[in-house]
Automatic annotation (TrEMBL):
Keywords: ATP-binding, Iron, Iron-sulfur, Metal-binding, Nucleotide-binding. One of its GO terms (biological process) is mitochondrial respiratory chain complex I assembly. This is Iron-sulfur protein IND1. PANTHER family: IRON-SULFUR PROTEIN NUBPL (PTHR42961). Residues 20-48 are annotated as: Disordered. InterPro entries: Mrp-like_CS, Mrp/NBP35_ATP-bd, NUBPL-like, P-loop_NTPase, YlxH/NBP35. HAMAP family: Mrp_NBP35 (MF_02040). GO terms for cellular component: mitochondrion.
């Protein structure tokens, strides 16, 4: 007989006990509607409020992982910052913070006189990330700093507490806009953020494939339920432009071609169906990835490159977002 590696209880007994005691309409007893659980208002519950000294908050999100949320968030934030718009970038990904790498920043933030964390700045963009608060790995004998192997394995309560601090204990100074790079999913972190602060708009990032788009559409549903305006959808890795001949290839199925999903499918069709603006395409481009990895995102890396299509793609999206939230785009 098999035994549970954790409890040592025979597996069969575990299953039979479970099936006897379940009385819910599905195995986990979760609500079928997908509606976030509502909490009775009681003393001590956080009240939704604006982040101090921050005029607008924009969340960059997608329920799907790895579609380019952080890449879009940092390039969006830098597009604003490089135009003189006072901008901050908050990395809300507690388990996999990307902002320190993307902005080539590290080191422990200092505390100001009110015990608030002072953001770290690069390229004129202020930023805060869980990654700055973790112990730093030391350089080895070759002078290289090895990648950190320490996992961030926290339970819900710790995550909520960390999130709470990142939301309320950062001294941003006056900001016109704070861009929030959200982790994948539609769970704890997203709900906590929405419970605690006013989000002025969200940008949903997807890639062309059906499998990513389905999750992006779920992300749309989450913001709708939370009554956060969805500013639009971005299609990242939309096509590959050959660096030699310039020919554009749609690497991933767009739901409108040979893969036969028909007109009801694809990012554009979903935007139309949901009544969401399509903000634009970002090409799949090795340079975008390279720039991100070396901590100088494309918007900055190609500032002096005339007619950089990849930089322009980010700028076009930033301009639309700026107009939608009432920022002055000069
Ligand atoms: N347009 C692009 N062209 C080439 N590479 C890209 C592009 N967009 C993102 N990438 C690369 O894809 C990887 C994933 O991107 P990113 O970290 O921004 O995704 P994410 O959605 O934030 O992921 P996670 O869900 O883990 O937070 C990174 O290596 C990034 O450099
Ligand atoms: Mg990310």
């Amino acid at each position: 007989m098999f035994h549970s590696p954790v409890s040592g209880v025979p597996i069969r007994r575990l299953f039979s006990t479970t099936s006897r005691t379940l009385s819910h309409d599905n195995p986990l007893g979760l609500p079928k509607s997908g509606t976030p659980p509502t909490f009775r208002s009681r003393r001590g519950m956080p009240e939704k409020r604006k982040i101090r000294d921050v005029k607008k908050v924009v969340a960059v999100s997608s329920a799907k992982g790895g579609v380019g949320k952080s890449t879009v968030a940092v390039n969006l934030a830098l597009s604003f910052a490089r135009r003189g718009i006072r901008t901050g970038l908050l990395d809300a990904d507690i388990f996999g913070p990307s902002v320190p790498t993307l902005l080539n920043l590290s080191g422990e933030p200092r505390l100001d006189e009110n015990n608030c964390l002072v953001p770290l700045t690069n390229y004129g963009l202020k930023s805060m990330s869980m990654g700055y608060l973790l112990p730093q790995t030391q350089a080895d004998s070759t002078g290289e700093v090895p990648m950190d192997t320490t996992p961030i394995s926290w339970r819900g309560l710790m995550v909520t507490k960390a999130m709470h601090q990142l939301l309320h204990s950062v001294s941003w100074g006056p900001l016109d806009v704070l861009i929030m790079d959200l982790p994948p999913g539609t769970g704890d972190v997203q709900l906590t953020i929405n419970q605690e602060i006013v989000i002025d708009g969200s940008v949903i990032v997807t890639t062309p494939q059906d499998i990513a788009l389905r999750d992006a559409v779920r992300g749309f549903g989450m913001f709708k339920r939370m009554e956060v305006p969805v500013l639009g959808m971005v299609r990242n890795m939309a096509y590959f432009a050959c660096p030699n001949c310039g020919h554009e290839t749609k690497i991933f199925s767009h739901g409108d071609g040979d893969h036969c999903h028909g007109e009801e499918s694809g990012v554009l069709a979903q935007c139309k169906r949901l009544g969401v603006d399509f903000l634009g395409d970002i090409p799949l481009d090795a340079k975008v990835c390279e720039d991100a990895d070396r901590g100088m995102p494309t918007v900055v890396a190609e500032e002096s490159v005339e007619r950089s299509a990849r930089r322009q793609a980010f700028l076009n999206i930033a301009e639309q977002v700026a107009h939608k939230i009432g920022l002055d785009w000069k």
